[in-house]
Amino acid sequence: MMPYNKNSGFSLVETLAIITILAIIASISVPYFHIFFAKQEAIQTIRTLNGFLKSAKNEASVRHARIVICSSSNYEQCENNNWNNKIIAFLDSNANRKIDHHDVVLKTESLQLKYGQLSWKAALNSPNIIFNQELGLPIGYNGSFYYCNHTHAIYHKIILSKMGHVRTETLDNC
């Protein structure tokens, strides 16, 4: 058995000094965590949109069907320019741009953006993106997504061309 040494351990002053140093380090690093998470959200949003648009174009080409991409809050109906929550791609069999009981939902994605805002601006001011059945192209429905984070100055433009190609640009402001 080891003899008890009353000088082992930390004194109250040493413990308070360590806690103070840790508090200072934490207070300095917290803003950097927010910047890191905001950048990661922007990267993930770009990847998600890129994959979603390519997938819809491929589905329209393979199925020779009209594919609609729209924003939603519940995966059951399209909403105008509410791209911060959920995205749906569906086979629009009757060309009404709405999800009916006979339409097939092909893909859904939950964005749940916390640091930024996502908006869509189309050539024909359409709130949806439509890939046509003949060529699988978004003819007349090309445009751009804008990801804007005003807190950390992270701005991106995701461009959908007339040929259905996707590219990304970094912007100076939104």
UniProtKB/TrEMBL annotation:
<feature type="transmembrane region" description="Helical">
    <location>
        <begin position="12"/>
        <end position="37"/>
    </location>
</feature>
<keyword id="KW-1133">Transmembrane helix</keyword>
<dbReference type="GO" id="GO:0005886">
    <property type="term" value="C:plasma membrane"/>
</dbReference>
<comment type="similarity">
    <text>Belongs to the GSP H family.</text>
</comment>
<keyword id="KW-0488">Methylation</keyword>
<dbReference type="InterPro" id="IPR045584">
    <property type="entry name" value="Pilin-like"/>
</dbReference>
<keyword id="KW-0472">Membrane</keyword>
<keyword id="KW-1003">Cell membrane</keyword>
<dbReference type="InterPro" id="IPR022346">
    <property type="entry name" value="T2SS_GspH"/>
</dbReference>
<dbReference type="InterPro" id="IPR012902">
    <property type="entry name" value="N_methyl_site"/>
</dbReference>
<protein>
    <recommendedName>
        <fullName>Type II secretion system protein H</fullName>
    </recommendedName>
</protein>
<dbReference type="Pfam" id="PF12019">
    <property type="entry name" value="GspH"/>
</dbReference>
<dbReference type="Pfam" id="PF07963">
    <property type="entry name" value="N_methyl"/>
</dbReference>
<feature type="domain" description="General secretion pathway GspH">
    <location>
        <begin position="46"/>
        <end position="164"/>
    </location>
</feature>
<keyword id="KW-0997">Cell inner membrane</keyword>
<keyword id="KW-0812">Transmembrane</keyword>
<dbReference type="GO" id="GO:0015627">
    <property type="term" value="C:type II protein secretion system complex"/>
</dbReference>
<dbReference type="GO" id="GO:0015628">
    <property type="term" value="P:protein secretion by the type II secretion system"/>
</dbReference>
